Here is the input.
Amino acid sequence: MRKRKMNLEEVLEKLKGKNVKRIGIQLPDGLKYKSEQIAEFFESKGYEVIISGSHCYGACDLDLDLLKEVDVLLHLAHTSIFELENVIYVPYYVDYDVEDFEDVEIEEKKIALIASAQYAWKLPEVKEFLESKGYEVELKTGSKRVKMPGQVLGCNYTVLRNSKAEAVLFVGDGLFHPIGAKIYSKKKVYRFCPLDKEFEEVKVDDFLKRRYLSISKALNAEKGAIIVSKKIGQKRLGLALSLKRKAKERGRSVEIIYLDDLSPQVLENFLYGYYVNTACPRISYDDIDLYSVPILTPQEFEITLGLRDWENYEVDEIL
Amino acid sequence: MRKRKMNLEEVLEKLKGKNVKRIGIQLPDGLKYKSEQIAEFFESKGYEVIISGSHCYGACDLDLDLLKEVDVLLHLAHTSIFELENVIYVPYYVDYDVEDFEDVEIEEKKIALIASAQYAWKLPEVKEFLESKGYEVELKTGSKRVKMPGQVLGCNYTVLRNSKAEAVLFVGDGLFHPIGAKIYSKKKVYRFCPLDKEFEEVKVDDFLKRRYLSISKALNAEKGAIIVSKKIGQKRLGLALSLKRKAKERGRSVEIIYLDDLSPQVLENFLYGYYVNTACPRISYDDIDLYSVPILTPQEFEITLGLRDWENYEVDEIL
Here is the structure.
């Protein structure tokens, strides 16, 4: 059963009483096809609408430029990271039946429950169901970047910090988050997707092999550059400056490049042999095949500098 | 003879006495390969450097976000449009010999002289040379967006406003500017490129045919959207709102999309049948083959709305 919820009527309620004439609408790329329908909904209620055309990868990626042009910015389909005046977050939830967890069989009895944002809202129910099956279930809150118990982001696994569980159960689609969770927690990680009912243990060997290859390539490359993002929730200039200083102390010279969206297109005119990405870690991990040069995480760059052992490989987090 | 000039020592002089620690460097895409060398030059003088990684298409496209992070922003290779505190423009000139104009033979005797920015600095010398050959030469200043006499931009032909000349001579590479000049002035336009010594009369029939095709396609498309750029020198939200209002009055509904760089990638998740581009006009004109849907100029959109006749086709300008 695949239901998705995004309640625009509720937004109308929130707008009432505010002196709002012009609304900005920001949607992740996967939902931009809905922009017409959503804009027409608010226009039919008398509001003026401007749609954000920029790519949008999360609540870390609020369109602050558009916010300056409108009375209220609706940021759709991501849970809040920054509570800003005049930004309304409109969550987008995937609905699913906890009964589907009937077939989830995990060898370990003490498990930590995690999920990506669209699935995390139902984790308390999942916990209850799994407990009724005899598991001991940990469902913890993380750093303030994640709002729901058990919620992980591509850059945040703090709900697993100091976990006492023997294994982790990730609820959601895709392999990206559970791979991060396994590297972060060093525990066995299982994944259950309520949409296609797929259940599997998550392996990270191939992922780590490819990361190691990138690190080796960067080690042999001439000059590199450290990428810093302009995005409110991805900007780590301090980290970049500190990495540059450490590199210099070790005889490696790197430049710092400041930009909005990191993409192969935006880099194609530069000639650096590798990049260190301090923006969204997902770009380094997920987009590896799009780039012809290594895109390292800060931790991987530390390995090339001899500041970290491969054995201490850590997933990049923004806290 | 192809020399190019960009004087960094002069920049050092300008920095002296200012309390500058951190410098931002912004280069057009075609010169980004020089970023390493330029950064190292300033670093060797004790400055901290951050390179702008965003695409850069002109002085209309100042990296104001980077400006917030640095003491001074060096904007390289474009002539100034906006005089902002802490922005230093570093021009980039192509050198050429006015004697090469010896072979330029123009039937008309009264000619207006124009050039793109990298060539315009030498127009007073070219004028003198052509006058010595018996031509009457007009070399006029334009709106404040263009700094040099005779200088045209892809979005500004005001140096040709009320021209009394019988024909126009464009100095520079590429066909983009002279095509714009011909549509703007409705005069005969010749082009001379001092680099390859190519001389030709410029034709616009094919260009206009393709524009007409785009307009027809847009007329038959369902819903469209008007693009507004965030860039300081390309932002025309007022124009977009006014076009939207006029469209509505004529029963055509359009949405407004706000973004930084207009590109096929950024539009690929939207489903609009055509776009009206109020950002850099060059995107509509030059990138026509990159897009699967029509990208109209504001004037072309007016044609689809019945607000302008095809006979009054005008090139889009930002004044």
The radius of gyration of chain A is 21 Å. The interface with chain B takes residues 24, 29-30, 32-33, 35-36, 39-40, 48-55, 63, 65-66, 69, 223, 225, 227-228, 230, 237, 241, 253, 255-260, 262-263, 265-267, 269-272 of chain A (CB under 8 Å).
